Amino acid sequence: MYAVVGLGNPGEEYAHTRHNAGFMAIDRLAADLSVRYWKTECGSLTAKATIGGEDVVLAKPQSFMNVSGGPVKQVLSTYRLKPDRLIVVHDDLETPAGAVRVKKGGGHAGHNGLRSICDKLCTHDFIRVRCGIGRPPGKMPVAKFVLADVRKRDLEELEAECDEAAQVVDFIVRNGLDKAQRRWS
User: Fold this and answer.
1) Smallest Cα–Cα separation from 4: which of 112, 128, 157, 161?
2) Would you say residue 168 has pLDDT above 90?
3) Which residues constitute the domain of residue 26?
4) Non-local CB neighbours of 74 within 8 Å, separated by 6+ positions
5) What is the CATH classification number for the domain harbouring 129?
6) Does pLDDT of 4 surpass 90?
7) 141 — phi, psi (to 5°)?
8) Is 8's pLDDT higher than 90?
9) Where are the beta strands (DSSP E) in 12-119?
10) Residue 123 has what pLDDT?
11) Which of 70, 72, 161, 172 is deepest in the core (most CB within 10 A)?
12) Is 130 helix (H, G, I), strand (E, B) or coil?
């Protein structure tokens, strides 16, 4: 079994922000898998599905991004999973907008959601599907950039990227991390 966690912030006011790329990708994956039932457990909205014969639990932590490590740890504990069975989908400033990248391990690069997960799990060794959002324009503060509603033309690009991230998760579960990294590194 895999735990597939999308990072974001709960609430309608954050639904169309760059910081919610993880939630958007999980929603797309759930739609692709015909998921109809979500429940609240482990501080998250969760749903069970199957990808290529492999069971997965989809999760969207309902804490704010900066403290998402607690709910992620609860999901792993509840489903008796080790961090090597965790796939985290998140926004990434260092990846160009529109690009999706896959990696395992590494630092958090200042991403507070990843920092929280690393701190709670006491490891950096989990799979990340990074949705590129690029750097803020000019001197715009990062927090304003990631939490502002995305303009319509940029939202279409972000949605397409999140669709691809959902496909990447499906590919990882079906074909393994090594093949995915060769394709989306």
Assistant:
1) 128
2) yes
3) 2-183
4) 42, 43, 44
5) 3.40.50.1470
6) yes
7) -65, 145
8) yes
9) 39-41, 44-51, 54-61, 86-92, 100-104
10) 95
11) 72
12) strand
Cβ pair 21, 91 in contact under 8 A: yes
Take residue 2 and report the two structure tokens written for it: 């895999």
3-state secondary structure of 139: coil
**Does pTM surpass 0.70?**
yes
- Exposure b/e, 32-63, CB count within 10 A at least 16 = b: ebebeeeeeebbbbbbebebeeeebbbbbbbb
- Using DSSP's 3-state secondary structure scheme, residue 134 falls into coil
Torsion sign over Cα 133, 170, 58, 74: negative
**Token pair for 166:** 């959902």
Report how many domains make up the chain: 1
Polymer length of the chain: 185
98-123 pLDDT, tens per residue? 999 999 998 888 888 999 999 999 99
DSSP 135: P
Query: For residue 65, what is the DSSP state?
Result: G
